[in-house]
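User: Thanks for the earlier help. One more: beta-glucosidase. Can you show the sequence and predicted structure together?

Assistant: Of course, both are below.
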Amino acid sequence: MKWLQLVPWVAAALAASVSADDQGIGGAGGSGPGFETVPRVPFNGNDSLPYSPPFYPTPQTQGTTQKWKDAIGKAREYLQQFNQTEKVMLTTGTGWSRGPCVGNIAAIPRVGFPGLCLMDGPAGVRGTDRITSFPDGVTVAATFSKDLFYRRAHAMGEEFKTKGANIWLGPMNNIARTPEGGRNWEGFGADPYLSGEAAHYSVLGMQDAGVQANIKHYIGNEQEHFRNEGSTNIDGRTEREIYLHPFLRGVQAGASSAMCSYNLLQNSWACQNSEMLNNRLKTELGFSGYVLSDWGAQHAGVASANAGLDMTMPGDVTCCTKQTGSLWGGNLTTAINNGSVAETRLDDMATRILAGWYYVGQDKGYPKPNFDFFNQRDPTVNGFVDATKDHWKVAREVAAAGTVVLKNKRHALPLCKPDRLAIIGSDAGPLYQGANYWSDRGGWPYGTLGQGWGSGANEYSYFFSPYEALQARARQDRTDFQWNFDDYNYEQTEKIVTNVTAAIVFVSALSGEGYITVDNNEGDRNNLTVWNNGEELIKRVAANNNNTIVVVHSVGQVDYESFADHPNVTAIVLANLPGSESGPALASVLYGEVNPSGRLPYTIGRNRTDYGTDVLYYNDTVTPQINYTEALHVDYRHFDAKGIEPRWEFGFGLSYTTFDYSGIWWQQVGQADNSWWGDKTAADGLPEWLFEPLYEVSFSLTNTGERDGHEAWQAYLSFPKSAGEPPKVLRAFDRTELKVGETKEVSFKLSHYDLSTWSNKQHRWVRPEGKIKVLVGASSRDIRQAVVLH
Ligand SMILES: *[C@@H]1O[C@H](CO)[C@@H](O)[C@H](O)[C@H]1NC(C)=O
Ligand SMILES: *[C@@H]1O[C@H](CO)[C@@H](O)[C@H](O)[C@H]1NC(C)=O
Ligand SMILES: *[C@@H]1O[C@H](CO)[C@@H](O)[C@H](O)[C@H]1NC(C)=O
Ligand SMILES: *[C@@H]1O[C@H](CO)[C@@H](O)[C@H](O)[C@H]1NC(C)=O
Ligand SMILES: *[C@@H]1O[C@H](CO)[C@@H](O)[C@H](O)[C@H]1NC(C)=O
Ligand SMILES: *[C@@H]1O[C@H](CO)[C@@H](O)[C@H](O)[C@H]1NC(C)=O
Ligand SMILES: *[C@@H]1O[C@H](CO)[C@@H](O)[C@H](O)[C@H]1NC(C)=O
Ligand SMILES: *[C@@H]1O[C@H](CO)[C@@H](O)[C@H](O)[C@H]1NC(C)=O
Ligand SMILES: *[C@@H]1O[C@H](CO)[C@@H](O)[C@H](O)[C@H]1NC(C)=O
Ligand SMILES: *[C@@H]1O[C@H](CO)[C@@H](O)[C@H](O)[C@H]1NC(C)=O
Ligand SMILES: *[C@@H]1O[C@H](CO)[C@@H](O)[C@H](O)[C@H]1NC(C)=O
């Protein structure tokens, strides 16, 4: 019972501190891990501060597709009934805690408009009951499956709709630029193409379920420290090729809305940055929907209106306390009347908002919110409406498919009716004070880790720990099953792991959103080691059991060096952040009912300094400059370019079967004319032909092993040196199912865009001179087939 005795003093010392305004703002900045990790490097070698050029006015929404044109047409027609005050009401949230949802747009009875309910979070409906806690973004990314991206989002969408939430505040499209980034787990990993496809299929799945998606956080919000005062500085090519790409794919899926972020981008607030909103998003990408502010990210009424913001959230002057007054609302009316904001700008805001609503068909019989985020357990305001259907099935499928087997020696896995099994570590067991003890999951983990912390978390309606699922399985197999959840009671651990068939040690690492600090981690992690004494625990178990299996639940990269090569550590399984179905999903992989196919959505390095990027923890000015000086060299692009040997590379993951790649070939399927651009630049909007396919590449995939399974194949491009690209960039992937002995022909298309790089000088996408190589394989460093396009 030592574990239990530990709790009071540990809890006192390590309890989470939640800032006074406990939602989505404030927080991180100032303290950190005790060393300065990022050397001061001037952005682009230029000592004057980066600057964002003006771009006005906001383009009127046109509609890039017939579906958008129809929605905009309906919006314009309906808007004729609205008077000016009512148009302003569409743009301005009712204020924090003035309505049942995280964000609310008031109903307008005179014209029959029912209002809008905006809800977090990216992995399930936040702050309510009878919902499914789906696997987090990092976990679904690890599936490398477009089908699962879609089905997870569609099931989640059904829950948002059942609860009466109009807008899903997801997907999260920021890139895991630094392993320490606090909110990395909400997003889809470190590669823009993987994130882009995940964003694309998530938007499609969500919106097909009738719920508006919201691509966020636009843009450059890759760390929590200084997210409310720092300027992210990104050069034009890096911005387009890495950070903008997932937003482009979200726009192409028809996302109804986008969320501008807290930070500044080239020293201009993201929610009043006319270059990024009016030009990049609404002109270059042709975004037809509306831009809403992150909660409290609006800093000026007139400037944001003219720069392209369409909706302010939650509507108050500052976030997030109950108050009166808004930078918009009555102030927007005044600004229009005194000529600071054009009436046509208000019309465009309102048109975009109504168009997003029509686009997903919310004008017809959409449920009203039947819960209250601010009074979650009060039956007078909560209907406790069940939204779950059988969504546990897809949640479990994603959690299992997103489990990555990193090491498997001496046939440690799959487990086969072991005689005696011991499981060790607090991360194996149920959450001691209940699954929802810590507000927004932001606290020291006395129990298994299923989600990160912050507004991206949701309330578990139930949560199966690994212990529960593995014990059920042990009974079925008549396995003797012992456990110890006390991370510090070595005596008991050593006793139960000695002479048993296998010992499974569970360890975890956490991070989250910067408004909550856990053990001095202000959102971003201070280090990459596992928490809860994990390294020592693994060491103790491995010293006493020659079949030690390590299971890791983590928000992102951890340091595996102290145990990865240990001869008694026979297997390492990265279960990421699995949500409610944690235990059953893990058991299905450990016992081989599911053949693992999960792949790393980021590189695991041997040393923190190997990553080449880190969080900026310290400021010497009031507007800290977060310079993305590594440019394109993020994650594997950096390891490849610098020749650094990772522990495990991007895209890596083991299977219980083997796959053979063969017979690669390609054909041209489109016009190769490269003169279409003429005098045009991206300022005219990206042309349709850019996204038309030029080549189709095919290869054969055979299951050559003894188990049915899925292979998450990947295709990388290798550009000619003169293109200035990293050695390899991902351009296609998917997860293909193959029975034993089965062969399938796999094909993918490459568009003009896929084969282009961004030219800062010409301000457009250009086709590099020379030949492009296509590399197909099982990871970014396990290339099995190559072909040159010529
Ligand atoms: C970022 O670059 C600017 C110049 O563009 C420089 O003044 C500043 O010191 C740099 N900041 C850091 C943290 O490297
Ligand atoms: C430095 O950047 C500023 C702002 O972007 C620009 O005006 C200036 O010309 C640049 N200087 C050099 C030497 O590149
Ligand atoms: C617009 O309509 C609202 C009712 O929805 C009414 O209260 C308001 O006075 C009207 N405003 C104007 C400017 O007519
Ligand atoms: C207008 O904005 C100011 C802050 O700039 C705020 O104090 C005031 O309450 C706002 N007025 C209205 C009507 O919302
Ligand atoms: C117009 O109104 C807005 C909102 O109240 C205010 O911020 C701005 O200063 C006013 N501008 C002029 C020129 O009066
Ligand atoms: C592992 O230990 C068991 C006894 O617990 C022993 O029977 C077995 O041979 C050992 N295996 C290896 C590979 O050392
Ligand atoms: C484990 O088995 C060995 C024989 O292989 C025995 O000597 C030892 O006492 C056993 N350990 C425990 C803790 O029972
Ligand atoms: C890393 O951070 C965790 C959580 O704050 C802490 O428990 C652990 O002691 C730290 N590890 C090291 C090596 O500092
Ligand atoms: C591996 O485990 C065995 C017990 O099975 C132990 O005797 C041995 O010392 C361990 N090896 C290492 C390197 O810790
Ligand atoms: C990690 O890299 C740093 C800086 O290069 C070096 O000082 C340190 O010894 C390395 N740590 C390990 C464990 O290799
Ligand atoms: C660093 O940022 C904090 C806000 O997080 C600010 O209060 C402080 O003044 C800044 N420090 C300097 C030296 O500008």
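User: Great, one quick takeaway?

Assistant: The first strand starts at residue 17 and ends at 18.
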